[in-house]
Amino acid sequence: MKFAKKSKVAASIPTASMPDIIFLLLLFFMVTTVFKMYPGLHVRLPDAELVKKIPGSKRHVVSIWIDKNKQVVCDDFKVDKISNLRTLLYEKRQKDPQILVALKVDKESTMGLVSSVQEEMRKAYTLKINYNALRGIY
């Protein structure tokens, strides 16, 4: 007489409701947790008595605008000849040796004019340059 082997019973834990249990626990801990609020530092800001412009905030910056119509403007002075730009920049550099030239060029201007302005800046020994290129503004 042969005996049949007993079949092993697989012990498994049903995991179908596991996400539900996890979300319920998460919701429970979120609702019951108390955060301690710190009052922080009390900062007393000064009150303004008078509003005025501080003089000399851009005292080391010289702006040169070049537009698409081949016009060159240096600090609100229109430059008729490019060679006049050299003397103007040289005088400004003599007054303030720390000047920075902000070269604001229209996108549609020619590179030849920009190159001529750069050459005059080199001749005037104004070698610190900041380039800006925005269409329609300059």
Description of the molecule:
- This protein has 138 residues and is of the alpha/beta class.
- The protein has helices at residues 18-32, 82-95, 111-123; strands spanning 61-66, 72-74, 77-79, 100-105, 129-133.
- It has a domain at 61-133: Nucleotidyltransferase, domain 5 (2-Layer Sandwich).
- The radius of gyration is 37 Å and the shape is elongated.
- A hairpin with a 2-residue loop joins strand 2 and strand 3.
- The longest helix is centred in the N-terminal third of the chain and has 15 residues, at 18-32.
Give a quick summary of the entry.
The chain is of the alpha/beta class and about 140 residues long.
Percent helix, as a range, is 25-40%
E-strand count: 5
CATH class of the domain at 61-133: Alpha Beta
Could you name the ranges where pLDDT drops below 50 across 5 or more consecutive residues? none
For this structure, the CATH topology of the domain at 61-133 is Nucleotidyltransferase, domain 5
- What CATH architecture of the domain at 61-133 do you see? 2-Layer Sandwich
- In percent, how much strand structure appears in the residues? 15-25%
